[in-house]
Amino acid sequence: MAVVRERRQLNLRLPLPSEHRSRFPPPLPPSAPAPAAPSSTAISAADLEKLQVLGHGNGGTVYKVRHKQTSAVYALKVVHGDSDPAVRRQILREASILRRTDSPHVIKCHGVFDLPGGDIAFCMQYMDMGTLETLLRNGVVFTESLLSKLCRQILTGLEYLHSHKIIHRDLKPSNILVDQKMEIKISDFGVSKILQRTLDPCNSYVGTCAYMSPERFDPDSFGSKSYDVYAGDIWSLGLTLLELYVGHFPYLAPGQRPDWATLMCAICFGEPPALPEGTSGDFRSFVECCLQKDSSKRWSATQLLAHPFVSGVDLQPSA
């Protein structure tokens, strides 16, 4: 049951578009070199044959494609580069992040190139089981044992990103890719931000508000001048684990459609959701470490990797 707290004035003003844009780092030019593909030849759009549509969303379409010469299979994310300069900056920011990352638990990019009409394409590593959201919709049961294995991989990816001053800011089941070996890759950096020398609070209203931490809704009440800017990703991880375990978004009843006001009130005024009875003490403790409303009390990715819920997981492939 949610605890009624003393009323306080929240600073919930949505930033103006001009305020959003001024926070963006300068984009890389579209022609900047991208990481090379595993083959000795750089990938171009003409080299790829579309096989099927994998999904739609975030202003674009993802295709399963095959390299005509090598028969290697990739995912091609085509983002509509419309006339809005802010949209193009967001696309190029994602390209900038993808070019900087090299982790076994962060999706690999093999090339970024322009398409006719202004669209931008990302040639990505292909994950044959889709996303964790896809598995959840298809009835996969996420046991504690499975979640501990998945969680350790996500944390390893987050630790890498945070050590390179990258905040994801939109971590959720639909942005975590998985293959048949249940190996995961963190993906979709369209709303992430590479921190510059000044570590600003990243309290702008981007990403999916359902997974936003309390300090992103109301930094004056739940943050501080020195709060950990990476802590929002840890909050999102806790909600993601809960959603996978209980089968629905934990702040809402099954089938309920979220809206911004309902979510804001639940996250800022209510108590964090908890695991149902019957779960292990380690699992409960881990989720509690993620879902501390006071961001300064939330554990970091490095600290969580030492938590008993995930510390004993062996990520080495079996012989």
UniProtKB/TrEMBL annotation:
<keyword id="KW-0597">Phosphoprotein</keyword>
<dbReference type="GO" id="GO:0051707">
    <property type="term" value="P:response to other organism"/>
</dbReference>
<keyword id="KW-0808">Transferase</keyword>
<feature type="domain" description="Protein kinase">
    <location>
        <begin position="48"/>
        <end position="310"/>
    </location>
</feature>
<dbReference type="GO" id="GO:0009875">
    <property type="term" value="P:pollen-pistil interaction"/>
</dbReference>
<feature type="region of interest" description="Disordered">
    <location>
        <begin position="14"/>
        <end position="40"/>
    </location>
</feature>
<dbReference type="GO" id="GO:0006950">
    <property type="term" value="P:response to stress"/>
</dbReference>
<protein>
    <recommendedName>
        <fullName>mitogen-activated protein kinase kinase</fullName>
        <ecNumber>2.7.12.2</ecNumber>
    </recommendedName>
</protein>
<feature type="binding site">
    <location>
        <position position="77"/>
    </location>
    <ligand>
        <name>ATP</name>
    </ligand>
</feature>
<dbReference type="InterPro" id="IPR011009">
    <property type="entry name" value="Kinase-like_dom_sf"/>
</dbReference>
<keyword id="KW-0418">Kinase</keyword>
<dbReference type="GO" id="GO:0004674">
    <property type="term" value="F:protein serine/threonine kinase activity"/>
</dbReference>
<comment type="similarity">
    <text>Belongs to the protein kinase superfamily. STE Ser/Thr protein kinase family. MAP kinase kinase subfamily.</text>
</comment>
<dbReference type="GO" id="GO:0004708">
    <property type="term" value="F:MAP kinase kinase activity"/>
</dbReference>
<keyword id="KW-0723">Serine/threonine-protein kinase</keyword>
<keyword id="KW-0547">Nucleotide-binding</keyword>
<dbReference type="InterPro" id="IPR008271">
    <property type="entry name" value="Ser/Thr_kinase_AS"/>
</dbReference>
<dbReference type="Pfam" id="PF00069">
    <property type="entry name" value="Pkinase"/>
</dbReference>
<dbReference type="InterPro" id="IPR017441">
    <property type="entry name" value="Protein_kinase_ATP_BS"/>
</dbReference>
<dbReference type="InterPro" id="IPR000719">
    <property type="entry name" value="Prot_kinase_dom"/>
</dbReference>
<feature type="compositionally biased region" description="Pro residues">
    <location>
        <begin position="24"/>
        <end position="36"/>
    </location>
</feature>
<dbReference type="GO" id="GO:0005524">
    <property type="term" value="F:ATP binding"/>
</dbReference>
<keyword id="KW-0067">ATP-binding</keyword>
